[in-house]
Specification:
about 300 residues, alpha/beta, Arc Repressor Mutant, subunit A, D-Maltodextrin-Binding Protein, domain 2, two-stranded antiparallel sheet, 12 helices, 11 strands
């Protein structure tokens, strides 16, 4: 039972004439008739009936029809997908980010996937330094990074947004109701910290250095997701970025997001999408950057 025989059965149901089916498939009429008889012989049961100069499906043909229709439709869908691969190349997009930007990245990838369903995506969440090494080795096509890293690493950089360093804590934490968070409070708190190779770890250290503060960490975690869980459980407060903290206040109202001490927000560098610029990954990554800018 090959696909052509099933296509003929589906088209017989549509046109009721062998000549019309032959025209649709660009085959000679005897070829269509041969495949019709071949399928009947293969299955050992009549599938067609001739009445009044037209061809109808038998009861067995009618039973087979919905399966034949699904199989031919799937084949047509597969053909369209492969045509897209012929135009763009069979592309696997390998992209990395720290998990503080996981929500933003996934929303952008969702939009990209809707536009380019043929695209396969592999996402790696890891500390920035690890991602930078993978990018330099060519193991990643792109990564979300700070502009300073992009200047050191090289490649094409599409600026996305500027972020801001904040503190997150449980609504039950003593800081949750404070309008102004004093430096001394942060210095005395046993914070939830991050792996030393993470972007948040270096950002927090830089901020503390500017204000000549010494930070204490009671618990160190390897991901922002783990830090959020620790904060929810009341283990301690943690540094975060404004974009990473988006939505946390609304999630059961368990987490408060606080600005850092000072008259102005603690701005971080420009974040963007760093990529090699090679095609076709570069094309998809520029489309991803455009999607992320809308978020």
């Amino acid at each position: 039972m090959n696909l052509l025989k099933l296509q003929i059965l589906v088209l017989i149901e549509k046109y009721k004439k062998v000549t019309d089916v032959a025209n649709e498939l660009q085959l000679k009429q005897p070829t269509v008739t041969f495949h019709m008889k071949s399928l009947e012989e293969e299955l050992g049961i009549p599938l067609y009936q001739n009445r009044s100069g037209r061809v109808w499906l038998s009861e067995a043909g009618k039973a087979l029809y919905p399966y034949a229709q699904k199989m031919t439709a799937l084949y047509s869908e597969a053909e369209k997908t492969l045509e897209r691969f012929k135009r763009t190349g069979a592309t696997v997009l390998r992209i990395g980010a720290e998990d503080i930007y996981s929500a933003a990245l996934m929303r952008g990838l969702r939009d990209l996937g809707e536009k380019s369903p043929e695209l396969q995506v592999e996402v790696r969440f890891a500390p920035e330094k690890e991602l930078a090494s993978l990018f330099a080795e060519g193991a990643l096509d792109g990564m979300i990074s700070e502009q300073n890293l992009a200047e050191k690493t090289g490649g094409s950089f599409d600026a996305l947004f500027k972020d801001e360093l904040v503190i997150i804590c449980s609504r039950r934490h003593k800081w949750a109701e404070l309008e102004v968070l004093p430096d001394q409070e942060i210095q005395q708190e046993k914070l939830v910290g991050y792996d030393v190779s993470s972007y948040l770890s270096s950002a927090a250290l830089s901020w503390a250095g500017k204000r000549r503060l010494s930070l204490q960490y009671g618990t160190t975690v390897s991901s922002f997701a783990a830090a959020v869980q620790a904060v929810r459980l009341g283990i301690g407060a943690a540094f975060a970025t404004r974009i990473a903290a988006d939505g946390l206040e609304e999630q059961g109202k368990e987490i408060a997001v606080l600005p850092l001490p000072g008259t102005l927000p603690e701005k971080l560098g420009t974040m963007g999408l760093l990529h090699h610029g090679a095609e076709p990954p570069g094309l998809y990554l520029r489309e991803l950057a455009a999607a992320l800018k809308k978020k």
